[in-house]
């Protein structure tokens, strides 16, 4: 990983950004001693990274979330330690931010502090979501999120999937879409995600160069 110490993960609702953020934090922990993840999703009450607190703490990743310790409560409370997460140069951190421009408002409050450190902001793209199935649709949300957060996207993540039914063809479709967005914005494609069960079916060399196999940590075994 050549990414910055502070990595912000954003994307349209349903893009799978939290799943990527969780997998990214786990991967980061394999490389660095001090790692944390901050759940800043104050919009969506489902599939939040905070729900995996026990898992994170077991492998030594610190979790920062709402000051209200209740997964079922959906209120705009931000972690009091967030400023430390942003400014602590000795810790590698992931910020899992709520989807769409509404969720990105959280970042605007801390934009100046974030700009004072080295950071990456990854925009997660799921080409199978109706609103982001075209270049125009992706650009609309990307532009709105940048404007709202007052921060710049530094990398694109192809996370086009159909959950456990994801095929190599799904990843290929997302690859082409994300590549076109990259051409339009001059923002590099940083990773191409795929569930580990499908990773062996990927043959496209361009995808393989940036392949990021993931586990479905946020979905229970009984979920499709």
Describe this structure in words.
- The chain is α/β, with parallel strands linked by helices.
- The chain has one domain: Rossmann fold, CATH 3.40.50.
- Helix content is 36%, strand content 19%.
- The protein contains nine helices and eight strands.
- Strand 2, helix 2 and strand 3 form a beta-alpha-beta unit.
- Helix 4 packs parallel to helix 6.
- The C terminus is likely disordered.
* Strands, count: 8
Q: Count of helical segments?
A: 9
Give the CA-based shape.
globular
CATH architecture, by name, is 3-Layer(aba) Sandwich
The CATH topology annotation reads as: Rossmann fold
Poorly predicted parts = 68-75, 220-224
**Percent helix range:** 25-40%
């Amino acid at each position: 990983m050549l990414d910055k110490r502070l990595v912000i993960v954003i994307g349209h609702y349903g893009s799978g950004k939290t799943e990527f953020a969780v997998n990214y934090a786990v991967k980061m922990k394999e490389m660095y001693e001090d790692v944390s993840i901050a759940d800043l999703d104050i919009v969506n009450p489902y599939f939040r990274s905070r729900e995996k607190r026990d898992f994170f703490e077991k492998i030594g990743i610190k979790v920062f979330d709402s000051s209200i310790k209740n997964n079922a409560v959906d209120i705009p409370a931000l972690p009091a330690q967030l400023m430390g997460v942003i400014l602590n140069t000795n810790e590698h951190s992931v910020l899992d931010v709520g989807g769409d421009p509404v969720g990105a408002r959280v970042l605007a409050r801390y934009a100046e502090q974030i700009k004072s450190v080295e950071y990456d902001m990854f925009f997660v793209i799921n080409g199978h979501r109706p609103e982001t199935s075209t270049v125009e649709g992706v650009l609309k949300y990307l532009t709105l999120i940048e404007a709202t957060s007052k921060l710049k996207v530094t990398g694109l993540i192809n996370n086009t999937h159909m959950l456990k039914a994801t095929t190599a063809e799904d990843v290929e479709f997302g690859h082409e879409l994300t590549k076109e967005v990259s051409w339009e914005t001059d923002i590099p494609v940083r990773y191409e995600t795929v569930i580990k069960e499908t990773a062996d079916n990927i043959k496209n060399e361009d995808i393989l160069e940036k392949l990021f196999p993931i586990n479905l940590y946020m979905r229970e075994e009984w979920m499709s």
